[in-house]
Specification:
single chain; 155 residues; alpha+beta; six-stranded mixed beta sheet; 3 helices; elongated
Length: 155
């Protein structure tokens, strides 16, 4: 949990960036091989936790993650000041496609669950959100990840 004034300010900045434009459009292919446009509406989830860190924390963290096949993915760059996970609640999924008669079909899901998004769409959301966040947040200061949450239980 964020516990300093600076980390709480960092969370407020991220909340504004998430809510500024809260829709992502990702192209997908359904089981029949047809193109589907997936529009995902999301909002900032207050379970987000950004912590302020110092060089000592970075050194400790990096020494723990220095070994193993995936260790380098978990290392923090020296100089980073904020570290944590931005949680983003998926609140609506709209899918558009054309059927065999070239008639546009629309499927709207206003209470999506985790299983309602497939992995290719999922990675498109992550890419979009991380690109957006790092466009405004200098990656020399922030080391953040994105996690999607769903429904009221955050599942």
């Amino acid at each position: 949990m964020a516990n300093t004034e600076k980390s709480l300010k960092a969370e407020k900045i991220i909340e504004k960036l998430i809510n500024m434009s809260n829709r992502v459009e990702v192209e997908d292919v359904d089981a029949m091989g047809q193109d589907v446009l997936v529009k995902i509406t999301f909002k900032y989830d207050p379970q987000t936790s950004i912590d302020e860190i110092d060089e000592e924390f970075i050194d400790k963290h990096n020494s723990v993650h220095a070994h193993g096949p995936y260790g380098n993915l978990n290392r923090i760059k020296s100089g980073v000041k904020f570290y944590g996970t931005v949680k983003v609640r998926v609140v609506k999924i709209v899918q558009n496609w054309f059927d065999e008669d070239e008639i546009e079909q629309v499927d709207t899901n206003i209470n999506p669950m985790k299983d309602d998004i497939n992995w290719s769409v999922d990675s498109g959301i992550y890419d979009h959100l991380l690109t957006r966040l790092y466009k405004f947040l200098p990656d020399s200061l922030y080391d953040i990840d994105v996690a999607l949450t769903f429904n009221k239980n955050g599942v």
